[in-house]
Amino acid sequence: MILKNFNLNNKTSLGNNNNRQNFLPVIISCEVTNMNTKSANPSIQCKVEQCENHCGSENYCGLDAINVNTHESNPTVPQCVDCESFVAKKQQ
After folding, report:
1. Of the candidates 22, 27, 28, 25, which has an alpha carbon nearest to the alpha carbon of residue 9?
2. Assuming Cys at both sites, which of 16, 19, 26, 40 could form a disulfide with 55, CB separation 3.0 to 4.6 Å?
3. CA-based nearest residue to 5, from 57, 15, 39
4. What is the model's pTM?
């Protein structure tokens, strides 16, 4: 499970240790469809619900790291890049 610092005003803090007394820990976890429980990685935000690694109602990826690449010779906009860690969910 991942612990995040969450302040009393519902704003996530990645700030310094001086303000820790103002924050409450929040546990983020996700259930991956292959029956393994993975922790949501708060460093990788993801909204692709069709991916096996997506963490359901949490808009995070369950992987520790992802591979991002491009299909263009000169990428200039976000649509030019791809998450190569995408795995399609199996049809049930």
Report:
1. 22
2. 40
3. 15
4. 0.58
